[in-house]
Write a structure and sequence with these properties.
heterodimer; A: 5-stranded parallel β-sheet; 5-stranded parallel β-sheet; B: Rossmann fold; globular
């Protein structure tokens, strides 16, 4: 909404330099994210490899799945494969061979593999990292159950434990992430028991789909912010709900934080709680405030401490820059947010909050 | 009886033209046919895309119906012909399409309802920007006010919503190679809708919306709680929207409905008039309010006209009587703040007298400067 031609803080400037430097040397990483096996990631990847090759790109296959369907085999036959090494009976991606061959693009079907002892790197995602550092573009696939941070959550749903994982940070470093949301093949139900178990399976799969879609959305959101930063654009798109709860020592924080948590949870949004530092604050107020911030922490909110002579303006500035879509404020936060000099803070906030909703809470 | 079973609706959701929605829909239609399901194509928009056209080969296409309008011939989906043909499953492209005047129904999604009611399963395609409750957010992202929208309840009825994903970069490559549009149209598109930042933001919107649709479909009748269902579960929320002649009323209705849907809360809308009806109003105002009330009803919001000359008091009294927990109002226009006009007073007055409930002041979303 607000566009400011690159007026940056030193931190922002450094960050931008870093982004540009990394982009210049590091290979491009693209990830196909699936929510279960059998959704067709391998086929989609190999098909992309074929299309890229047909367009004249220098494409090799670095790793494939152990078991392949006939249509995947057929695609693979048309592509150059750098054969894996055999270490102790295990197939290990030949990183050295790939670096020597140095293709423009390397496809890795299945990122979550622990390499056996004696391999160049302990895990396959580190193999991929090495290729990226050498400036090779990597296109890789993974299922959410193998994402380290999601493993426990997925395990609760599927009841299946996996040992080999990839850190979420590696996925989030991807330049592109694409979700494979095709429905898995449905088993044919014959008996009521089969129908019931099919329904249960459908439930499990939808939870997994939700997790995968949200992970992709988070990566996309991060990319959007980087893009805007890179181009010096400050604006809010509102694709991601971001709720900012304003607390003061005497605010009725519980209802605000509960509601914010409910709404941000349902919208899969972000929850932030802001406090504007007051110059003279009594010990009682200090304790009350700490209690409120504790509530906020328990709700999983990101706490923001703001400073500024005019508290409402500080909140508005932060909200505009931080892409906030909803501000929550208590009805009688008049004393807490510096009334008198600046007027009724609720009124002032309503007046100043352009392009975002303001939710006024009863006290 | 098997005949009365409602057909299943499956939506292929995308975020822009060219991501592969129609292609995927046709791939699935072919797979169903191979499995022995009686599938037809009810409507297909080729857009000159070769790969997609290839996928219709071997599928039965029900001929379109020709409709004359102002001396020109238009073609629409022939619902009667499909009903007469009675397939098990019908693929219908471009769910949000508006039919040419003179068609039996105004919207293609209404045509689809007829097919579903007849027990025919429907596969269909749409982009996220056509979802009614996201209209203002889409305007904020793209600067384009989408006119062809689908009420959220229609999408919520779908048995399955599948996200057809493609990275914006890949989409831009497709566009540049002329796969999606002719070269001239592609260049124009890249200036408008197909800017990378716009595509990234729309895609994020589509991913989050599909995630929501996915759990919403299963969470509340299943044993697994949805990811966001932890806090504040005990409070049953009820939302109220104040409708005025101002055009921002539509935005407040959309926003409240969206929040209501996400919170599983009931939503009401009221207009306040001294006479209790719209008869005494100047024609423009009367029409505007009637239009907003109608819009709310189309989104399945219950509406009421309250009889009072004191808007704020009437709204708050109604809210208290009906256990409303949140009132949604439009943010007064910029100039009204300084001039202390009616709408500013109204918001302040409601905020001041309704100290027992949450007041949500909804601001207009302005498109991002590019």
């Amino acid at each position: 909404m607000v566009r400011e031609p690159s007026r940056k803080s030193p931190e922002e400037f450094l960050r931008q330099c870093q982004i540009q430097e990394e982009a210049a040397t590091r290979g491009h990483l693209k990830i196909f994210l699936g929510y279960a096996s059998g959704v067709g990631k391998s086929l989609r990847m190999l098909d992309e490899a074929r299309r890229r090759k047909e367009r004249g790109q220098d494409v090799v296959i670095g790793a494939v799945q152990d078991r392949m369907r006939p249509e995947e085999e057929a695609l693979l036959a048309k592509l150059e494969v750098v054969s894996p090494l055999r270490i102790g009976g295990n197939a290990v991606m030949d990183v050295e061979g790939l670096l020597r061959r140095h293709p423009a693009v390397c496809f890795i079907d299945g990122l979550a593999y622990d390499n056996p002892p004696g391999a160049r790197n302990p895990t396959r995602w580190q193999d991929a990292q090495e290729l990226l550092c050498a400036g090779i573009k990597v296109i890789a696939s993974i299922n959410i159950q193998y994402v380290d941070e999601l493993r426990a959550e997925v395990e609760k749903i599927t009841g299946k434990h996996v040992d080999q994982t990839v850190p979420g940070a590696f996925l989030k470093s991807a330049d592109e992430i694409e979700i494979v949301d095709a429905p898995p093949e449905e088993p044919i139900e014959r008996t009521p028991e089969e129908a019931a178990s099919a329904q249960e399976r459908a439930l499990r799969l939808s939870r997994l789909r939700e997790i995968a879609l949200l992970l992709a959305a988070d990566v996309v959101d991060q990319q959007l912010n980087q893009y805007l930063e890179k181009h010096g654009i400050r604006q809010t798109f509102g694709a991601h709900e971001r709720i900012l709860v304003c607390v003061t020592p005497r605010a009725n924080a519980r209802e605000m934080i509960d509601t914010a948590r409910l709404i941000s949870g349902r919208f899969h949004g972000e929850l932030l709680v802001a406090y504007v530092k007051q110059p003279r604050i009594s010990a009682a107020d200090k304790a009350a405030l700490e209690e409120k911030l504790e509530l906020a922490r328990a709700a999983g909110a990101r706490i923001v401490i703001l400073e500024g002579e005019d508290p409402v303006q500080s909140i508005l500035d932060f909200a505009t820059q931080g892409g906030i879509t909803q501000i929550f404020i208590g009805h009688s936060q008049r004393s807490g947010l510096g009334s008198g000099v600046w007027g009724n803070p609720v009124d002032k906030l309503l007046r100043g909050a352009r392009g975002m909703d303001v939710r006024v809470f009863p006290q | 009886m098997a005949d009365t079973r409602r057909g299943r609706l499956k939506i292929y959701m995308g975020y822009a033209a060219g991501v592969g929605k129609t292609y995927q829909m046709l791939v699935e239609a072919r797979e169903l046919k191979a499995k022995g399901v009686d599938v037809v194509v009810g409507y297909f928009e080729p857009h000159g895309r070769k790969d997609t056209i290839l996928k219709t080969e071997g599928l039965e296409i029900v001929p379109r119906k020709k409709i004359e309008y102002r001396g020109s011939a238009f073609e629409e989906m022939d619902v009667d012909a499909i009903l007469a043909r009675r397939p098990q499953c019908c693929a219908v492209d471009e769910f949000p399409h508006t039919n040419v005047p003179g068609s039996p129904r105004a919207k293609r999604w209404e045509d689809v309802q007829i097919l579903l009611e007849a027990g025919i399963d429907v596969l269909t395609t749409m982009n996220i920007q056509h979802l009614e409750s996201l209209n203002d957010q889409v305007y904020q992202i793209t600067g384009i006010r989408v006119r062809e929208t689908i009420p959220d309840w229609v999408v919520q009825q779908a048995d399955e919503v599948v996200m057809i994903d493609l990275t914006p970069r890949a989409l831009l490559h497709r566009l540049a190679r002329g796969v999606i549009y002719s070269r001239e149209k592609a260049e124009q598109a890249m200036q408008n809708f197909f800017r990378e930042s716009t595509l990234v933001a729309l895609r994020e919107l589509a991913l989050r919306e599909t995630a929501h649709e996915v759990v919403h479909r299963t969470a509340f009748d299943g044993a697994l709680p949805p990811a966001g269902a932890s806090a504040g579960q005990a409070v049953a929320h009820k939302l109220l929207v104040l409708i005025t002649p101002d055009p921002t009323s539509a935005m407040v209705i959309r926003r409240a409905k969206r929040v209501g849907d996400f919170l599983d809360a009931e939503c009401f809308a009221v207009a306040v008039q001294p006479s209790g009806d719209l008869a005494g109003l100047p024609p423009a105002e009367r029409e505007a309010i009637a239009q907003h009330l109608n819009f709310a009803r189309n989104l399945h919001i219950e509406t009421r006209i309250l009889e009072s000359s004191d808007v704020a008091t009437a709204v708050v009294d109604f809210a208290r009587r009906n256990q409303i927990t949140q009132i949604f109002l439009a943010r007064p226009k910029e100039r009204h703040w300084s001039l202390n006009l009616f709408s500013r007073d109204l918001v302040q007055k409601i905020v001041n007298i309704a100290k027992d409930m949450q007041i949500v002041v909804v601001a207009e979303r302005e498109p991002a400067a590019q």
